[in-house]
Design a protein that fits this description.
Elements (H helix, E strand, L loop, with lengths): L9 H49 L5
C-alpha cells in the first residue's frame, strides 16, 4: 500500500515557524555585530593610512 503525502504535518509547520522566529529574532544582533565590525575595520584602515603617511614623511630622500 502506497501512501502519498500531500500536506505538511502539524509538527513540520511548528518546526518551520520556530526556525523562522529564531532567524527573525537574530537579525538585530547580526546587524549590530556587522556594523561594529565595519566600524572597527574603518578605524584599522585609518591607522594604516596614517602610518603610511608618517612613514613617507619620515623617510623622505632627496634624489
Amino acid at each position: 500500500m502506497v501512501i502519498h503525502k500531500y500536506a505538511f504535518t502539524l509538527i513540520e509547520l511548528i518546526f518551520a515557524i520556530v526556525i523562522i522566529g529564531i532567524s527573525v529574532m537574530s537579525l538585530p544582533m547580526l546587524t549590530q555585530v556587522t556594523s561594529s565590525a565595519i566600524e572597527k575595520n574603518l578605524v584599522q584602515e585609518a591607522i594604516f593610512a596614517s602610518v603610511a603617511e608618517i612613514n613617507l614623511a619620515t623617510t623622505y630622500t632627496l634624489l
